[in-house]
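Q: Structure tokens for this one, please.
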Amino acid sequence: MSKLNILIVEDESLLALDMATSISSYGYNVVDYVTSVEQAQKVLNLQNINLILMDINLNDAMDGVDLYKSFNTKAKVIYITAYVDEKTISKAIDTDPLGYLTKPHNENELQALLKLAEFKLDSLQIDNTIVKLSSDYSFDTNTNILFYKNDFVKLSHKKTELLRLLINAKGAVVSFKTIEDTLYQENPPSESTLRTLIYRLRKELDQEMIETELNYGIRLRIL
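A: Here is the predicted structure, written as tokens:
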């Protein structure tokens, strides 16, 4: 089975669906396809993505190259574009892309790029998914499992989502608003529900690992 976990970022939903269908037919795992910056960030916060197919010419405030840079992710990128100009290529080179795909995509070209991406990701050995949180705690971002020493710590779905969000923030403060938008989306929680979730996750870890910034958010302090 392929080790590629793919996110497609393409503002034309029909093109995104068509590409996702093709990629799935090759046997690769399309975790999601999205049409906006906000949707892309939510998927990256919660899923183990290692390859992004990114439209360069997004109908948004920033182009696909700047958006990819803003994600601060280890996932590699293949850029999608209707046209390729020297200025765009020069800018994209700085992000070390695995390749470029013109749209509408050619099936053979797409399949060849994915095979190349799979080979390069294997060679980079980026499937080492264990994040060391402290001398006693570690988290497997591939299976979403928390370990205390060598023992499995059972977390609820929401506690796991919150922990993953904090890990992906890499020590930065995550606002309560971001937590609400990412974990609850269409059903905003009450203040007490959110406070209880944070309290329960804190109990699963060393107490000092989760720090609160008053009236703003929380961060995970890697010990």
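A few notes: The mean pLDDT is 88. The radius of gyration is 19 Å.
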